[in-house]
Design a protein that fits this description.
The chain is of the alpha+beta class and 454 residues long. Helix content is 26%, strand content 27%. It folds into 3 domains: 12-138, Phosphoenolpyruvate Carboxykinase, domain 1; 141-264, Phosphoenolpyruvate Carboxykinase, domain 2; 267-451, Phosphoenolpyruvate Carboxykinase, domain 3 (Alpha-Beta Complex), CATH 3.90.228.20. It has 12 helices and 25 strands. Strand 13 and strand 14 (235-236) form a beta hairpin.
Length: 454
């Protein structure tokens, strides 16, 4: 196990005591039990059971996991069981937890304990974490990404942290969605681990994201932390009264253009998304296999901090494999598998920056979504590879001189800054952040991967 700030050990004895406490708590409740699968590829799927005290969490599991057929249910035997008790709270001093809330994975006794939280995401992410442990041992790469497939059978994978546009950019009317969040990549191709979507709802609009908006009007969709008027029952998607992390859970079948089998061929393109709020990374660059592994391990994006003394400063965020909280094995395990699969299948890999242009947050502006979509289209139809490419002088990345339907001036970010010296200083600052973050991995990757960085 890759022990870190997210993955913390607890003794088997304390985990067992908590298990018996949760069982005692649940024995006094009406319970809802849901049997399902994780993984659309039958030979590697995981059979699971969710036991919960709340009906809506059981409905959530029904949306998010893959439903067995009546025949499969007849002889169903779960390989792992989730004991979900949102109204049971741990005593940190007695139970050895860090707070009253806990999510405990016991990969030996095949059980997951969730207590002290009603956030439904813990159900799906605990299973995803389990799959991220099990699948690599079967030679299958597990990935925190979205995936879609074109009419020619060309699969594309989109890696990216929250706010980079992963869900939005993978939702295309001309491409069928395999899934929006969790996938495996085996010798047979790419498959969805889930049977549903868990989309962010904050500031959702019918105009900007019509497909996702339409799911909110369909039976079975669960809106979590979303505010509505109890008199009119009108939903307020703009409200963050509870949290910014408002969510909608719905089955994939609520979307019109999906792959019914939840599977696709080996990918032809991998797109790593970042939202660089410093405004210095190129909006699109083509990566070598070594650069791809470097950026996959780095998992960079930037978030915008609050204003302090009148200064708005972006904050760099590095999350290994674009999903560190869900990765129980060391990032280099997943990166090695990625490198091998890129080489074996001749996959094109791109870094796409959906962040700021013309300056950092507060000075520049967000990259226009229409321009980013045009770049994605250029990647997927192959037209961007037909033009001339040059090397960015600051980051050593290979960038196109032109792209269909894209303002060429945007392609080299330094051109969009009025203050060229400020650009150079900011670029050096970001490169130093990358180098500092990557120090923790240098002794476990090849020299070529280290040199492929900034």
């Amino acid at each position: 196990i890759w022990w870190n700030e997210g993955n913390k050990p607890i003794s088997p004895e304390k985990a067992d005591r908590l298990f018996h406490k949760i069982r005692s708590h649940l024995s006094k409740k009406d319970l809802y039990v849901k049997d399902a699968f994780a993984g659309a590829e039958k030979k590697s799927r995981l059979s699971l059971r969710v036991i919960t005290e709340t009906a809506w969490h059981s409905a959530f599991a029904d949306n998010m996991f893959i439903q067995p057929t009546p025949e499969e249910l007849h002889n169903f035997s779960p390989e792992i069981v989730i004991y979900h008790a949102p109204t049971f709270f741990a005593d940190p001093e007695v139970d050895g937890t860090r707070s009253q809330t806990f999510v405990i994975l016991d990969l030996v006794k095949k059980r997951i304990l969730i207590g002290g939280t009603g956030y439904a995401g813990e159900i799906k992410k605990s299973i995803f974490t389990t799959m991220n442990y099990l699948l690599p041992k079967k030679g299958i790469m597990s990935m925190h990404c979205s995936a879609n497939v074109g009419k020619a059978g060309d699969t594309a994978i989109f890696f990216g942290l929250s706010g980079t546009g992963k869900t939005t950019l993978s939702s295309e009317k001309d491409r069928a969605l395999i899934g929006d969040d969790e996938h495996g990549w085996s010798d047979e191709g790419v498959f969805n681990i889930e049977g549903g979507c868990y989309a962010k709802m904050i500031r959702l609009s019918k105009e900007a994201e019509p497909e996702i908006y339409a799911t909110t009007q369909k039976f079975g969709t669960i809106l979590e932390n979303v505010i509505y008027d109890e008199a009119t029952r009108r939903i307020d998607f703009d409200s963050d009264a509870i949290t910014e992390n408002t969510r909608g859970s719905y089955p994939l079948t609520h979307l019109d253009n999906i792959v019914p089998e939840n599977k696709g061929p080996h990918p032809k393109n991998i797109i790593m998304l970042t939202a660089d709020a410093f405004g210095v990374l190129p909006p699109i660059s083509k990566l070598t296999p070594e650069q791809a592994m470097y950026h996959f391990i780095s998992g960079y994006t930037a978030k915008v901090a609050g204003t302090e003394a009148g200064i708005v400063e972006p904050v760099a965020t590095f999350s290994a494999c674009f999903g560190a909280p869900f990765m129980p094995l060391h990032p280099t395990v997943y990166a090695k598998m990625l490198g091998e699969k890129i080489a074996k299948h001749g996959v094109h890999v791109y870094l796409v920056n959906t962040g700021w242009t013309g300056g950092p947050y507060g000075v520049g502006s967000r990259m226009p979504i229409q321009q980013t979509r045009a770049m994605i289209h250029g990647i997927l139809d192959g037209s961007i590879r037909e033009g001339e490419w040059i090397q960015d002088p600051h980051f050593g990345l290979t960038v196109p001189k032109s792209c269909p339907n894209v303002d060429s001036n945007l392609l080299l970010p330094e051109n969009t800054w009025k203050d060229k010296e400020a650009y150079k200083q900011t670029a050096e600052k970001l490169k130093a952040m990358f180098r500092e973050n990557f120090k923790q991995y240098e002794d476990q990757v090849s020299e070529e991967i280290v040199k492929a960085g900034f």
